[in-house]
UniProtKB/TrEMBL annotation:
Keywords: Amino-acid biosynthesis, Aromatic amino acid biosynthesis, Cytoplasm, Isomerase, NAD, Oxidoreductase, Tyrosine biosynthesis. Pfam families: CM_2, PDH_C, PDH_N. SUPFAM superfamilies: 6-phosphogluconate dehydrogenase C-terminal domain-like, Chorismate mutase II, NAD(P)-binding Rossmann-fold domains. This is T-protein. GO terms for cellular component: cytoplasm. InterPro entries: 6-PGluconate_DH-like_C_sf (IPR008927), Chor_mut/prephenate_DH_T (IPR008244), Chorismate_II_sf (IPR036263), CM_dom_sf (IPR036979), CM_II_prokaryot (IPR002701), NAD(P)-bd_dom_sf (IPR036291), PDH_C (IPR046825), PDH_N (IPR046826).
Length: 378
């Protein structure tokens, strides 16, 4: 048998293995769909972190016993799990039926539609109150048990203040990315239960499992517990935080990040190289950076302008510190001061020391995906 014949025969074997993998995936999908139906029936959360950890650890150990890369096996498992979570979204358990009907103010916007779709999957009665329904606002809000405000930050005060009086037992909640000022607006408007939520994701998510939502207490938290339990059933990770602490964290996590990405995107747009030219010769890490920059500019300019403007006065000090750090680094580069650059690197490295290895491992997987995407696109 020639080398070409042997190669052809081996490829047939690979095709057979791949076909068996597809059949196994179909079998696994059928099982996870049944599990999803049972979870919906008994009101169990979609995400079982302990079960997930045990499963992955067991399969990693099995992979090592069979001389298979355990990281490869874990990557495949996590991708299959993500697919399973997506497949289990069609019908979800209703954890707090007492919160129905739900009125979504701004329900025709992207985030409003996202919440409406998820609440509908859990069996809640949904009513939409947006510009087109303003004339019927009082009727729509009659008997509402949960009112979720999903409007731009700069419009929230006007929208909330213009709402008709809400039932005393109605839970009033907003989902803006700033929490102190909106919570005050909500509590000035409504004497009943109030809670502030900040979903740390956009409307393009494929499922809610492992998505983080920050929860800031407003008033009568025990009356808001049903809503939080519903979020947990969907698989969300809830982070309870004081509103002031939240806004301070968001100044760094969101506002500063958006500002620096916004500036860098403008900088790239002014260069002589096209995006295609930059991508053609980029490393995986820069490919990933371009993806994240491009992601921002694929979003709504009104939304991101509102986010940056809403807290600009609060981040002026941070911006000054950022600018100073940039200028000091530039001075060291101009002076050719390698020792000073190493010292600065060491100071920052100390800040990341507790998580550096974990970040390195996690980023390696992201870089591989970025490189795969680059190869496919070019």
């Amino acid at each position: 048998m020639t080398g070409e014949q042997t190669l052809s025969q081996l490829r047939v074997g690979i095709d057979e293995c791949d076909s068996q993998l597809v059949q196994l995936l179909a079998k696994r999908n059928a099982l996870t769909s049944q599990i999803g139906a049972i979870k919906q029936e008994i009101g169990a959360p979609l995400h079982a972190p302990d079960r997930e950890s045990l499963l992955i650890e067991a399969r990693r150990q099995q992979a090592e016993e069979h001389n298979v890369n355990p990281d490869l096996v874990e990557d495949i498992l996590r991708r299959m799990m993500r697919e399973a979570y997506e497949n289990q979204q069609s019908k979800l358990a209703c954890k707090a039926p007492e919160l129905s009907p739900v009125v979504i103010v701004g329900g025709e916007g992207a985030m409003g539609q996202l919440f409406a779709k998820q609440l509908t999957r859990s069996g809640y009665e949904i009513r939409i109150l947006d510009r087109a329904q303003q004339a019927d606002a009082e009727t729509i809000l009659t008997g509402a048990k949960l009112v979720l405000v999903s409007v731009p930050i700069n419009a929230l005060e006007e929208v909330v203040s213009s709402l008709p009086a809400l039932p005393d037992d109605c839970v009033l909640v907003d989902i803006t990315s700033v929490k102190q000022a909106p919570l005050k607006v909500l509590m000035d408007k409504h004497i009943g239960p109030v809670v502030g939520l900040h979903p740390m994701f956009g409307p393009d998510i494929s499922h809610w499992v492992k998505q983080t939502i920050v929860v800031c207490e407003g008033r009568i938290p025990e009356a808001c517990s049903g809503l939080l339990e519903q979020l947990k059933v969907w698989g969300c990770q809830l982070v309870e935080m004081d509103a002031k602490k939240h806004d301070q964290a968001m100044q760094i996590i969101q506002v500063m990040r958006h500002l620096t990405t916004f500036v860098y995107g403008q900088f790239l747009a002014k260069q002589c190289h096209t995006l295609e030219e930059l991508r053609s010769c980029s490393s995986p890490i820069y490919q990933l950076e371009l993806m994240m920059v491009g992601r921002l500019f694929a979003q709504s300019p009104e939304l991101y302008s509102d986010i940056m403007l809403a807290q600009f006065n609060d981040v002026e000090g941070l911006l000054a510190s950022y600018q100073e750090t940039f200028e000091l680094t530039l001075d060291k580069l101009k002076a050719g001061d390698k020792a000073a650059l190493i010292d600065s690197f060491s100071e920052a490295k100390h800040y990341f020391s507790g998580s550096a290895e974990q970040f390195l491992k996690q980023s390696r997987g992201l870089l591989n995906k970025a490189n795969d995407a680059k190869v496919l696109d070019i």
